[in-house]
Write a structure and sequence with these properties.
single chain, alpha/beta, Arginase, Chain A, 279 residues, globular
């Protein structure tokens, strides 16, 4: 089943390639089931973002429309990430990956950086994932990708529950962090400009759905109150996409804990809105 935003069956024609990675083997979360997310997001996308009248099927597009050619590669195993992402970026296509647990992003970022060099990483998450005492799991993602990113042009957005070790690492590496309180105090226009001024040319965006408040996204593996609004996240993603991005992933949707598939549908809409803004 393809996500409804896919509009070509030919990989070679595509400018954007969607890849599902249904793996949660590096997660320590009490909630399990993020491996079901790629299938569920595609399923809900096809059900809720299409309209049928008789034999006619119409797609509920973002207002910006989708002018890029989008190909859905289907699902892959964790051990196929390197070869799959290498193939996509070596063809100058943009990978959009659906997980799975957030540790998946480590291998994706490694592959994207091989082509473009150190990346400006925009990291949407309730958690910094900046644990340095343990490696290769969903709480060490940001530390594990340090060799592949430019910290000076990277930024974390939505952080609100750091551990002491993570606070120390944020200070040590001089990482720019925007909290939900910053957004409320400073307003979206100022925050948007801060992000666009901070990031460089080769931007990679990683989105943990728990950055969004559980009121909008209840079906995540580690929900945290006081999060960002869904439209705030979508607007910031669209602004970044309009400047240009080399890759995008969306992680940690946990369908087992969702309410009437609201989080999976939101993830689908976020993907569509981002695609429609990519230049």
């Amino acid at each position: 089943m393809n996500i409804c935003w896919a509009n070509t069956d030919n990989f070679d024609d595509a400018e954007i390639v969607i890849v599902g990675i249904p793996d949660e083997s590096k997660s320590h979360a009490l909630r399990k089931g993020t491996s079901d997310a790629p299938h569920k997001i595609r399923e809900i996308s096809s059900i809720r973002d299409t309209y049928q009248r008789g034999d006619e099927i119409s797609l509920g597009l973002p207002l910006d429309e989708i002018t890029k050619k989008v190909y859905d590669h289907g699902n892959i195993e964790r051990n196929q990430i390197k070869d799959t992402i290498d193939k996509i970026v070596s063809s100058s296509k943009i990978p959009i990956s659906i997980g799975g647990d957030h540790s998946i992003s480590i291998e994706i970022i490694k592959s994207v950086s091989k082509k473009y060099g150190p990346l400006s990483l925009v990291y949407f998450d309730a958690h910094p994932d900046f644990i340095s005492s343990i490696h290769g799991y969903y709480g060490s993602v940001f530390y594990d990708v340090l060799p592949y990113i430019d910290v000076n042009t990277s930024i974390q957005i939505g952080i609100r529950t750091p551990e002491k070790e993570e606070i120390d690492n944020i200070k040590k590496y001089g990482l720019k962090v925007i909290t939900p309180f910053d957004i409320i105090r400073d307003g979206m226009q100022k925050i948007e400009q801060t992000i666009l001024n901070k990031i460089g040319k080769n931007v990679y965006v990683s989105l943990d759905m728990d950055v969004i408040d559980p009121a909008f996204a209840p079906g995540v593996s580690v929900p945290v109150p006081l999060g960002l609004g869904n439209t705030e996240v979508a607007l910031l993603l669209k602004s970044i996409a309009k400047k240009g991005m080399r890759g995008f992933d969306i992680m940690e949707v946990c369908p087992n804990y969702d309410i009437k598939d609201r989080t999976s549908h939101l993830a689908s809409r976020i993907i569509g809105e981002t695609i429609s803004s990519i230049v």
